[in-house]
Design goal:
mainly alpha; 0% strand; elongated
């Protein structure tokens, strides 16, 4: 009968530990391979789908830059106020032309400066062109050859843009001292849209009848003031507690509007008589 060799306990334990460690390594390798689909179809789908959205944006350089603080005197500060859809500008233009709707002018959206900028630019051009047209119509040929007056454009731009900036700034200061949260850009935007009605009135002032000019300008001024008061009067009533200060703020807006149309009549349309 052959003798059976029995391994010492230390060697048997070491062999068992080695086998156990080998089995664990094999299990890890199996698990890691089990969840990887390296088939041709899977690789084809991955290639067709392309990289992940984040990876794609990084490859194309479309990642959003980190926003930095912009000061109010920098161009970056005003860029968001020119980023507006044409549909929204059209809706605000219609509201400015018909100020009897009870809904909010901005409809819970941020104010824009795109519309007011082009309204002021168009009004400046309309004043200068109409003023030169009236000068040409009134020219009788006695003082030599007629020549266009380019300085009318400079005067018109200074007058319109000056009112579009100074008047809202003063009104904003009055409301700010009274505790109003209405922003300066919002007031500038409202004031810019209020000047829209002066564009057709200015063009129609080329009619060579003095009383028609006065009627058109005062009518446009009253319409514009109606739009402004309906848009800003709620803020004035809410935050300006003293009635005297309320009427000062409202009177300031009205007086600057009528001063604008008076200067326009006397400087640009003076050839048709007072």
């Amino acid at each position: 009968m052959e003798d059976i060799e029995i391994d010492p306990p230390e060697e048997s334990f070491a062999i068992n530990v080695q086998k156990l460690m080998a089995a664990q390594e094999q299990a890890k390798t199996t698990d890691s391979l089990q969840f990887q689909d390296l088939s041709y179809e899977k690789r084809a789908l991955d290639i067709e789908a392309g990289p992940e959205p984040t990876e794609r944006a990084q490859l194309l350089g479309e990642t959003e830059p980190q926003k930095s603080a912009a000061y109010f005197w920098s161009v970056t500060y005003y860029q968001p106020f020119f980023d507006i859809d044409t549909r929204d500008v059209t809706a605000r233009v219609l509201k400015a032309l018909w100020p009897f709707k009870k809904e909010s002018f901005f409809m819970e959206q941020q104010p824009d400066l795109y519309g007011p900028f082009w309204i002021c630019t168009t009004l400046s051009l309309a004043l200068a062109m109409t003023g030169n047209l009236i000068s040409w119509l009134s020219f009788n040929g006695q003082n030599g050859q007629w020549a266009s007056e380019f300085e009318k454009l400079l005067v018109a731009a200074s007058l319109v843009y000056g009112c579009a900036v100074i008047v809202p700034l003063v009104l904003w200061f009055i409301l700010k001292q009274s505790g109003s949260s209405m922003g300066l850009v919002e007031i500038v935007s409202l004031y810019g849209y209020s000047l829209l009605i002066f564009i057709p009135a200015t063009i129609l002032c080329s009619i060579p009848v003095a009383w028609v000019d006065w009627m058109l300008l005062f009518g446009a001024g009253a319409w514009s003031i109606l739009f402004l008061t309906r848009s800003i009067w709620i803020e004035i009533q809410t935050h300006v507690t003293l009635p005297k200060h309320r009427y000062i703020a409202a009177g300031f807006v009205c007086s600057t509007h009528f001063a604008l149309l008076l200067l326009a009549k006397l400087y640009f349309f003076r050839y048709l008589g007072f």
